[in-house]
Amino acid sequence: MKKTEINFTVAGFRFKIIFEKTELQYIKKKLMKDIKAILTGFIYPNSNISVDFCIRLVENKRFKTCCIKKTNYIEFFTLENSKTARCSYQISVFQLEMIIRNFLLKALKDKGFILHSSANKKGNKSILFLGDSGAGKSTIMRLLDKKYPALADDSVIIKKEHKRFFLYQTPFIEKESWVKKNSNKYIIDKIFILKKASFFKIEKILDKKFIFQNLMKQLFTEKPYYKKQIYSIASFVKQIDEFYYLFFTKDQNKLFKFINKYGL
Q1: Exposed/middle/buried for 45, CB within 10 Å: 0-12, 13-18, 19+?
Q2: What's the rounded Cα separation, in Å, for the pair 9 and 174?
Q3: What is the rounded radius of gyration, in angstroms, for the C-alpha atoms of the chain?
Q4: Which of 131, 169, 170, 199 has CA atoms 20 to 30 A from the CA of 153?
Q5: What pairs with residue 87 in β-bridges?
């Protein structure tokens, strides 16, 4: 029956999930277990440190069902204020992810963005892979994992801190659930736009307008934050000078031979 909490940090922003008292003990325990599984690596011990955003889970035995153009939906959360969301214990982890993403976009403002990208670790740095659906983002991430540990399969957070951009992992559910995640930040080394081919080749991209357009296509955003996200992407493109095409084929041995010869 007691109130419990989970504290976690994403991209340097502190979150708190408060589980208010409830008689729905089975649902509470199941939800806590699912949330902890997703947030493994992001959770930090309970403390009195102030948080940036709070999500309160409350007992709600009545649901408000809305109808827009004959489409019914259940309102799964409400905002108590700009930094606190309230939702019921019947929420799913996917809906909880939407709340966290919305808060992250609000916190990032014009200093960062969430990008549809895979990524791997290179020493204490990160390399990113962009491309349309089917371009091979997940494929290249898996092929490189043996030498360059995977950081992301689908989404990353790019954040500007002290005039420098860093990559953070997201706690979001992705196709490749085996990727280990945490709240660490990584210097961005190179960004590759993928091209499937029958050969291996790296070619530098000099056209900044083309880079900007490609990044915009891979942006996770919502309407209230769109203009600030454009500014953030433009700043990123202007500052980072390590954009490349990577032509590759699905052959791990040949890939590593290419990397050993030409680098990555």
Answers
A1: exposed
A2: 19
A3: 20
A4: 199
A5: 57, 77
Angstrom distance (rounded) from CA 125 to CA 212: 22
Judge if 33 and 79 occupy the same domain: yes
Cα–Cα distances in angstroms (integers) from residue 125 to residues 68, 77, 86, 176, in the given order: 47, 37, 37, 21
| Structure tokens belonging to residue 165 | 């951009």
Name the E strands within 70-200. 71-74, 77-81, 84-88, 112-116, 118-122, 125-130, 150-152, 155-161, 164-169, 185-196
83 and 138 share one domain:
no
Question: Token pair 């992992």 is at which residue?
Answer: 169
- The pLDDT profile of the chain, 264 residues, written as one tens digit per residue, is 556 899 999 999 999 999 998 888 888 999 999 999 999 999 998 777 899 999 999 987 665 555 556 565 556 788 899 999 999 888 889 999 999 999 999 999 889 999 999 999 999 999 999 998 889 999 999 999 999 999 999 999 999 999 999 999 999 999 898 999 999 999 999 999 999 999 999 999 999 999 999 999 999 998 889 999 999 999 999 999 999 999 999 999 999 999 999 888
Q: In terms of domains, do 126 and 26 share one?
A: no
